[in-house]
Amino acid sequence: MDIETDGSTLVLAGDFDVRSTMEVRHALYELLALHDGDVVVDLSGVDSIDLTALKVLGVATRQAARDGHHLTLRGCRPAVRRLLHMTRMIRVLEVERAATPA
């Protein structure tokens, strides 16, 4: 899992699963502590995601809201969107709409 920070955006690439949740959780909470307001998690480079990773995002979203922040997911690929719908986490996590081509 590659984790980069670009301003208030956490950019992830690779497999976001149980093996990488601790380092993603740490990076995400660090970013939330540094920025007031909106934080984005860019998943456009994530090849696969599992339920443990979705739980990390769900708990971070809840904690961010308690602290007055707003967490949004960007660049969700179809496999990620399917898992969000299957687990009903789509109700908890805010997913940025993909821009429709002109």
UniProtKB/TrEMBL annotation:
It comes from the Bacteria. InterPro entries: MlaB-like_STAS, MlaB_ABC_Transporter, STAS_dom, STAS_dom_sf. This is Anti-anti-sigma factor. Pfam families: STAS_2 (PF13466). The lineage of its organism: Bacteria, Bacillati, Actinomycetota, Actinomycetes, Propionibacteriales. It comes from Nocardioides lianchengensis. SUPFAM superfamilies: SpoIIaa-like.
